[in-house]
Amino acid sequence: MKTYIFGHLKPDTDSVVAAMALEFFYKKKNFFDAQNPEARIVGEINRLLKQGYLPIMAFQHFELCEYPPQSSQRIDFKNMAEAGAVIVSGSQAHCPQAVTFVDGNFVHYGLGNLFFDQMESTYARSEFLDRHVFYGGKYISTELLTAILEDYARPRAMTGEERAYLLGKVFEASEW
User: Fold this and answer.
1) Fewer Cβ in 10 A, N or C end of the chain?
2) DSSP string, 94-122
3) Alpha carbons 87 and 89: distance in angstroms, whole number
4) In the chain, where are the structural domains located?
5) Do residues 69 and 32 make contact, with C-beta atoms less than 8 angstroms apart?
6) Model-level pTM?
7) Phi/psi at 142 (5° precision)
8) Mean pLDDT throughout 142-163?
9) Cα–Cα distances in angstroms (integers) from residue 78 to residues 1, 58, 60, in the given order
């Protein structure tokens, strides 16, 4: 089976990884229910929880540059968190997006660009690197590390002023 990636002239890493993951699941007979693929993913989260795993769900949702999530993002991410995914994270956003908690599970709608060449605005150059802490089989916390791209794909830690501005915008758009 060959994997084809559509939508980019030069596919970026998230597109390639998403296509590889999809190919893996398509090879599993009847993994996706054509009528309701979400139900299958929720079932998989439940199965993993029963086995003692802490499921993490990553989305390659619609690409956009807005701090607040789209309504479809809210619905999809919320459904996965309610199903028991301890972390739900979006890798699609070219700009950082809001965060929230659903049933005590951490949701980050979009991390922003990491190692990407979009230098047209501070917004597109800003990014999160979420550091998730687990201990003793439990999810403990997430540290929101912030960075900004320089020289076309070289991240550096944000200054205090840059960080305060980004966190202010993201928290303003967040669902608290």
Assistant:
1) N
2) SS---EEEETTEEEES--B-SS----S-H
3) 6
4) 13-173
5) no
6) 0.80
7) -130, 130
8) 92
9) 33, 12, 15
